[in-house]
Design a protein that fits this description.
Layout: H1 3-35, H2 42-48, H3 51-57, H4 60-65, E1 74-78, H5 84-92, E2 98-103, H6 106-118, E3 124-128, E4 141-147, H7 156-166, E5 167-178, H8 187-196, E6 199-206, E7 210-217
Parallel strand pairs: 1-2, 1-4, 2-3, 4-5
Antiparallel strand pairs: 5-7, 6-7
Bound molecules: S-adenosylmethionine.
């Protein structure tokens, strides 16, 4: 056997071991998350909001474009993380529109406050709030969106019912998920949650690996 062939075989074995390692970690994490839900630590939100994801997988601008945003709209984001999606949406509701970025963790909100101050963004309002009990009036919001967040919440249907309460009759909620997330639900699972909470599918985008679902309020509810 020549040297290059041996090197190729070693590289292939290395890839198989690495792939198996990540697969096993992913399966273990999925099993843990199935029975034990908690908000991911603030520093992890920085890791998942990385250039590869923003450039190739879940592009902030594309996510925002699919939400049919208009200037002046009031938008609520649940679980903004580092704020890349918040920023893309905030740009599309200018002038006069606002994005309320809601998170249950103080560390996430404080970091977002520092970012918007540094980047001088005037229409993002970071706020500590709980998806189960949002501090907004009934039917007061045009759009609600959550990226890789809803399945992390222990009772997604209860949270969706709260979104239903604050959403205007003409409003849309937009949910996006990606496969490497250990909490990733299949599309049909998320559609079922939304339907139980009083929504119907409006539009859907993406593939099995990364998708975005828009829902509107069911007419009779
Ligand atoms: C996985 S991160 C997603 C961050 C960001 N959307 C992204 O895609 O990069 C989920 C966020 O949801 C927040 N979260 C979890 N449960 C929540 C709840 N009940 N109410 C509000 N935020 C919550 C977590 O604190 C966390 O910051």
């Amino acid at each position: 056997m020549n040297f290059w062939l041996i090197l190729r075989i070693i590289f292939l074995i290395f890839l198989i071991i690495l792939g198996s390692f990540f697969f096993i970690v992913f399966v273990i994490l999925r099993i843990i998350r199935r029975y034990y839900k908690f908000p991911i630590p603030g520093f992890m939100t920085r890791l998942i909001d990385n250039p590869i994801r923003r450039r190739f997988i879940q592009k902030p601008n594309r996510i925002a474009e699919r939400m049919r945003l208009e200037p002046g709209m009031i938008v609520v984001e649940i679980g903004p993380g580092k704020g890349s999606y918040t920023k893309a949406v905030a740009e599309k509701v200018l002038p006069n529109g606002k994005v309320y970025a809601i998170d249950i963790q103080e560390s996430v909100i404080n970091r977002l406050k520092r970012r918007i101050k540094k980047e001088d963004i005037s229409n993002i309002v970071p706020k500590i709030d709980d998806a189960f009990n949002l501090s907004f009036e009934n039917k007061s919001v045009d759009r609600i969106f959550a990226i890789a967040c809803l399945p992390e919440i222990p009772d997604p249907v209860k949270a969706l019912k709260e979104f239903h309460r604050i959403l205007k009759p003409s409003g849309i909620i937009s949910l996006s998920e990606l496969f490497p997330d250990p909490d990733y639900p299949r599309r049909k699972t998320e559609k079922k949650w939304a339907e139980i909470a009083g929504f119907e599918l409006d539009e859907e985008f993406g593939n099995w690996f990364v998708y975005q679902l828009n829902f509107k309020k069911k007419l009779i509810h």
